[in-house]
Specification:
The complex is a heterodimer of chains A (447) and B (551).
Chain A lengths: L23 E4 L4 E5 L9 E2 L6 E2 L4 E4 L8 E2 L4 E10 L5 E9 L20 H10 L12 H4 L10 E6 L8 H8 L1 H14 L4 E7 L3 H11 L5 E6 L8 H9 L14 E5 H12 L6 E8 L5 E6 L4 H7 L9 E4 L6 E3 L12 E5 L3 H7 L9 H5 L6 H9 L3 H6 L10 H5 L6 H24 L1
Parallel strand pairs in A: 1-14, 9-10, 9-12, 10-11, 13-17
Antiparallel strand pairs in A: 2-8, 3-5, 4-7, 5-6, 7-8, 13-14, 15-16, 15-17
Helix pairs in contact in A: 1-4, 3-5, 4-7, 11-14
Chain B lengths: L18 H23 L1 H24 L10 H11 L8 H15 L12 H12 L1 H4 L10 H8 L6 H6 L10 H13 L6 H17 L6 H9 L3 H8 L10 H21 L5 H19 L13 H9 L4 H21 L10 H43 L5 E3 L2 H9 L12 E10 L5 E13 L2 E10 L4 E9 L12 H4 L11 E3 L9 E3 L5 H21 L3
Classes of the chains: A alpha/beta (447), B alpha+beta (551).
Chain lengths: 447, 551
């Protein structure tokens, strides 16, 4: 099939060689599992257990509150120690269910029992995905069952398995494709059962030829699944970019991939779908890369809610020169104040930087020379320089006129800026303000 | 408490590119042209370049020091400005010229507006234009006027040929950055490193070519076009000055508009003005439009304003899509239209510049009114001009009773077809010939109206009178728009007397003054261009007279 190449993008150094050959090592939480109630887009889940309740791995402990929300599942067996605010990755306290693990990881009844896919109807599959608390595991954490229920399911033409993994450093999707291709293909088959008219496409950046080979072999028996290579370029793995690459269609501003007949899921999400649907195993663990300035960088299979400090310990601990901890990669990752936070469903990596480039950049910021590199790098075709001027002047109208609200905060413009302007941070602040302003204006205009 | 880690907003990676490197790229790109300039013009060119660069860095440092700003010397921008300024100077200028030019460029054009990134026009060009206005004669004093396209063009128009290859390689006279080949190498380097984009050079070249071919004197003549392209400051301008990112638009669409504007203005200045370096003015004027272009050219980002399924629709059309696909496409388009509707004011990405339209209308109306007035008064103006021309003829035919026309002479003038006269008088034209008659109608003298286009400000026209023996009876100007106090001084009786009552085959201009012979003319001090134009025109008249009126 024809693959379209998106505009813009940057080529930061990948740094993937540190961990790309390290197979997953299972790390089990020692004595405490901290499971935040909000690990997804939408409203936090409502707890259904109380303090001192006995729980098992795979048991529902908090249920989705409303349509766009997701179930929360216990990832170990033990006693509920507390339901209280704990420090999470955002640097703030958030409500968490804390479980004292009994160290046995006993499964709840029914978990791990096979249900052949042939015996299931589409609505049963969606129900199982929802029950399993599956959310987008690439970073956004969007509840997957919502994606499976678009307004016009008959118009879905492609189910896209996103294995681009364009962020530097991270390799957990890469390893997953190498080690568990059958789970990813299985997840795709589940989705194809929901959308029988659609076609499965696995997209992988061409810097992972081994993964492309393995996935091609795994997809061989299925004529409605294709594996395609994408050019290596950041942010190739962004949802809009992936949809354009496959269909040549632009997702309209503010719309979802379904408007272009696509459902995009990270390969990790698809594996989780497969396990939830076929093996009745809710989302309890995920692949997690620990890389950068740690003693033994590697890929780990971790339970959701495992304290990050334990995984760092498994990776040999932080190096002395560690300066910055990032959940995710260096382009879009979130800087952490410390390692005493739990791993959530959507966290794919801990990147430890020994050299804080932002601190260096901020030390030598210069006037914008309007070189236009940001404009050329922007995958959305925006003009970051002009948007930044609007931000500096707090000119919301101009920011909106420049389509600043369509910025996806990928950081490409900021990466290339020779004057080291803090473009993306400015847009991060401005975007929600502008969106609120727009809504207020529309409400006023619409009466 | 455990170790404290840095926390900041993403992205946490920065490319290694810096402003300094961006500037050094430009310096590197200018190196071939600089080295060639020094090789070709010699030591003085090197001194001009050094003075320009060193004084630019000095003034940058001085300003930072006085204004208590952090030292910005090492971002390299002052060096770029100094080097660019030097490359568009004549290799023979006195060294105070680059010094003053750098001062104006760095302090006034750049730092007064906030330093690098804030200047609204290219500092090097601002410096150059400042120098032209202040030291006009020094700035345009090339041994042969290589920077301006006038000389090669005149040669071309006069039926001669110009060695385009030599101009291209740079073995010509002109400003220091004269080698087009070296400049192109630099331009390609800049394109390859992403320092500049193709939009501005390409758009300006295309626009320049279109205007010259459509409205140029030579019509559709590739050779003429080539001379225009390799001559003057065009290549230096479009690759190194118009592309100055600070003063050109951000979006590629805006850059196309900007480039076209530069091309249009450059072509118009070459065709319609007497200036030798229209390029500087073209770029500076286009620079002034940059904020306006940036304001109104808002690009369509992804998914906004464009119909969904854009690329797919194109691919499908190519493959002669089946009806099914067409229906899909229509649906997608309808959806997109609906979305565009719902998106409301946001989807309207190109705001129509109402104020610009109003301004345009005012300009058009004012221009129309002016043209109307011109039409209405045209007859009066013509009558006045004819009276002035007659008076000028009478002034150079003092012995005649009245002025008349001779059919043979008129035919001889018409035979010239309004072309440049001869090959050795610059751009000189014989406009009209008439005869001086005595009371009984006998021819007692001849008078010609001649003009030269090589005056400092364009056309210089005059009447030249002869008796029947070949002796000049004097000259009288009919068109003279030269600089007051300099070029205008040719219209003094003492200077014009040099052309009175002498019988020579041609005059020679003595720039330094102190002529001794009849056929030597003292240049008006500081106005050798104007004086030269007059001498050329008179020589043309003498030649025409000798060929047509004697024997």
């Amino acid at each position: 099939m024809k693959i379209f190449q998106v505009r813009g993008g940057v080529h930061p150094k990948a740094h993937k060689e540190q961990t790309k050959d390290k197979p997953f090592v299972t790390v089990l939480p020692k004595d405490e599992v901290i499971i935040p109630l909000s690990q997804h887009t939408g409203r936090p889940a409502k707890p259904v257990v109380k303090r001192n309740d006995q729980v098992f791995a795979g048991q529902l402990i908090a249920e989705a509150d409303g349509f766009i929300s997701a179930n929360i599942i216990s990832s170990c067996s033990g006693k509920v120690k507390a339901i209280e605010p704990r420090m999470t990755d955002a640097g703030t306290m958030a409500e968490c269910i804390v479980i004292a693990s009994d160290g046995e990881f006993k499964n709840a009844p029914g978990v791990g029992e096979e249900t052949p896919l042939d015996t299931l109807t589409p609505s049963e599959i969606i129900e199982k995905i929802k029950r399993g608390g599956v959310v987008g595991m690439g970073g956004a954490g969007f509840p997957t069952h919502v994606k499976m229920m678009p307004p016009k399911p008959e118009e879905i033409k492609y189910i896209i398995a996103n294995g681009a993994e364009c962020e530097p450093y991270i390799t957990c999707d890469h390893r997953l494709m190498l080690e568990k291709p059958e789970e990813i293909i299985g997840g795709l088959l589940c989705c194809l059962k929901i959308f029988p008219g659609a076609k499965g496409v696995v997209v992988i950046e061409d810097n992972k030829p081994d993964a492309i080979g393995v996935m091609k072999a795994a997809a061989e028996p299925y004529p409605n699944i294709e594996v395609e290579a994408l050019k290596t370029c950041y942010p190739q793995g962004g949802e809009r970019n992936i949809v354009y690459s496959v269909t040549g269609q632009y997702i309209a501003s503010g719309a979802l991939p379904a408007s272009c007949g696509c459902v995009v899921d990270n390969v990790g999400t698809l594996a989780a779908i497969y396990r939830a649907v076929v093996w009745n195993e809710p989302l309890m663990e995920r692949g997690f890369t620990v890389t950068g300035a740690v003693a033994n960088p590697g890929n780990f299979m971790v339970r959701i809610g495992t304290p990050l400090s334990e995984v760092v310990e498994a990776a040999g601990g932080l190096n002395d020169d560690a300066q910055k901890l990032l959940f995710g990669g260096p382009m879009m990752g979130v800087a952490l104040p410390g390692i005493d936070v739990p791993i959530k469903k959507a966290n794919n990596a801990l990147t430890v930087l020994s050299d804080d480039e932002v601190a260096r950049a901020e030390a030598k910021q210069e006037n914008c020379i309007r070189c236009g590199r940001c404009t050329r790098a922007c995958p959305m075709g925006l003009i970051p320089q002009q948007m930044a001027v609007a931000c500096e002047r707090k000119d919301l109208d101009r920011f909106i006129q420049l389509h600043g609200v369509d910025c996806m905060l990928c950081g490409s413009c900021t990466y290339v800026c020779p004057a080291k302007r803090p473009l993306t941070p400015m847009f991060k602040q401005m975007k929600p303000v502008a969106m609120g302003y727009m809504r207020a204006k529309q409400a006023k205009g619409g009466k | 408490m455990a170790k404290l880690f840095n926390v900041s907003s993403s992205p946490h990676f920065r490319s290694e590119h810096t402003v300094g490197r961006e500037m050094w790229n430009v310096v590197l790109a200018l190196m071939p042209a600089t080295i060639f300039g020094v090789y070709h013009f010699g030591l003085h060119a090197l001194l001009v370049i050094l003075t320009s660069v060193l004084s630019a860095t000095f003034f940058e440092f001085l300003y930072d020091y006085i204004a208590h700003k952090p030292n910005t010397l090492w971002d390299g921008s002052a060096i770029v400005t100094g080097l660019l300024l030097a490359l568009c100077l004549s290799p023979t200028v006195p060294l105070f010229i680059p010094f003053i030019g750098s001062m104006f460029a760095i302090i006034v054009a750049k730092n007064f507006f906030g330093g690098l990134g804030k200047n609204f026009m290219n500092p090097a060009l601002a410096g150059r234009v400042f120098l032209i206005i202040s030291f006009g004669k020094l700035m345009t004093d090339y041994a042969v006027d290589g920077m301006s396209s006038a000389t090669p063009l005149a040669t071309l128009n006069g039926g001669g040929t110009v060695d385009i290859m030599k101009m291209y390689l740079g073995f010509a006279t002109g400003h220091i950055g004269v080698s087009i080949l070296c400049l192109l190498i630099g331009g390609i380097f800049l394109l390859a490193t992403g320092t500049i984009t193709w939009q501005i050079p390409v758009a300006s070249t295309i626009m320049f070519a279109i205007v010259l071919l459509a409205f140029g004197p030579a019509g559709f003549d590739p050779q003429y076009l080539l001379v225009q392209l390799v001559g003057g400051g065009f290549v230096l301008g479009i690759f190194f000055m118009a592309t100055d990112p600070v003063s050109s638009p951000m979006s590629s669409e805006g850059q196309l508009i900007f480039g076209a504007l530069v091309g249009l203005l450059a072509a118009l200045f070459r065709l319609k003005s007497s200036m030798t370096d229209g390029m500087s003015y073209a770029i500076i004027i286009a620079n002034l439009f940059t904020p306006l272009i940036d304001k109104y050219v808002v690009v369509h980002p992804w998914g906004v304003g464009k119909p969904a399924g854009f690329a797919e629709a194109k691919a499908a059309a190519k493959a002669k899509a089946q009806t099914e696909k067409a229906a899909e496409k229509a649906q997608a388009a309808a959806e997109a239209a609906e979305k565009a509707k719902n998106a409301g004011p946001v989807a309207k990405s190109f705001t129509f510049p109402v104020s610009a339209a109003i301004l345009c209308a005012i300009t058009l109306i004012a221009g129309g009114a002016l043209a109307g007035v011109n039409l209405m008064t045209a007859d009066t103006i013509k009558a006045n001009q004819e009276a002035a021309a007659l008076a000028a003829y009478e002034a150079v035919q003092p012995q005649a009773d009245h002025i008349g026309y001779d059919d043979d002479l008129t035919a001889a003038v018409e035979a010239l077809g309004g072309e440049v006269y001869g090959t050795s008088y610059g751009r000189a034209y014989i406009n009209e010939g008439c005869v001086g008659l005595d009371a009984s109608g006998n021819i007692v003298g001849y008078a010609f109206n001649v003009s030269s286009m090589d005056g400092y400000d364009g056309e210089v026209s005059m009447s030249v009178g002869f008796d029947t023996e070949g002796t000049l009876l004097g000259i009288s100007f009919t068109t003279l728009n030269e600089t007051a106090g300099m070029g205008m001084l040719v219209d003094t009786d003492s200077w014009k007397a040099q052309f009175k009552d002498v019988k020579v085959d041609s005059f020679t201009l003595i720039k330094a003054g102190g002529s001794t012979a009849d056929d030597e003319i003292d240049s008006v001090s500081g106005a050798s261009t104007t004086s030269g134009a007059v001498v050329n025109a008179v020589n043309a008249a003498i030649d025409f007279y000798q060929k047509n009126c004697i024997g």
